[in-house]
C-alpha cells in the first residue's frame, strides 16, 4: 500500500502549535499554518472545517497534553523533579528555536478576542493551565504541602515559568529560567518536605 503524501492531522496540529509559538495567533493565518506543516490547504480545511480557531484550539490542547505527559512522568519522582522537567522542557524550546519560539498556550491566552466573545482556543488555554496547575498541586500535596499552599504554589510555578519563557525570548538568554529555578525549588522544598 502506498504511503499517503497528505500529512496527518497530528502533523498539522503540531505545525500550527509551532507557528503560534513563534508568531502568536493573530499574526498567523490558517494558510501559513498549513504551509508551515507542509500540508495542502485543502487537507487542513478537511481536518479543521471550522478554520483557524478550530486548528488553534487543537494546537493548544496538543501542547497541553505534550507538557502534561512530561509532567506526569517526572512528578512520580516528586514535585522538585516535575519542576525541573517543566523548566528543562521550556528551556529546550527557546534554545532549540534560537529564542524564536515560546509557549503557544501563552500566545493564545494573551490575545484579545476580536468579537468580544471568548474563542474556543482561549477556553482551551485556560483548561491547559488548569491541568498543569492540578498536576503540580497534586504532587505537592502528596509530598506534604497543605491543600491551599499546594494550589498557590502550583499557580505561582506555572505563571512564573510561562512569564519567564517570554522573558527568555526577549532577552535571548535562558538566564531568567535559571534564576527562577533556584527560587521555585526553595519554595517547593519548604512546602513539600517529603
Give the helix/strand layout.
Elements: H1 9-23, H2 30-36, H3 41-47, H4 52-75, H5 79-96, H6 104-109, H7 120-142, H8 147-171, H9 175-191
Helix pairs in contact: 1-2, 1-4, 4-5, 4-7, 5-8, 5-9, 7-8, 8-9
In brief, what are we looking at here?
With 194 residues, the chain is mainly alpha-helical. The protein contains 9 helices and no strands.
- What structural class do you assign from the helix and strand content? mainly alpha
Overall body shape: elongated
Order of helices and strands: HHHHHHHHH
DSSP E strands, number: 0
Helix content: over 70%
Detail the poorly predicted runs: 1-6
Mean pLDDT: 92
* End-to-end distance: 55 Å
% residues in beta strands: under 5%
Largest sheet: none
Radius of gyration: 18 Å
Verbal overview:
The chain is mainly alpha-helical. The chain is built from nine helices and no strands. It is elongated, with a radius of gyration of 18 Å. The N terminus is likely disordered.
Task: Looking at this protein, list some descriptive labels.
194 residues; mainly alpha
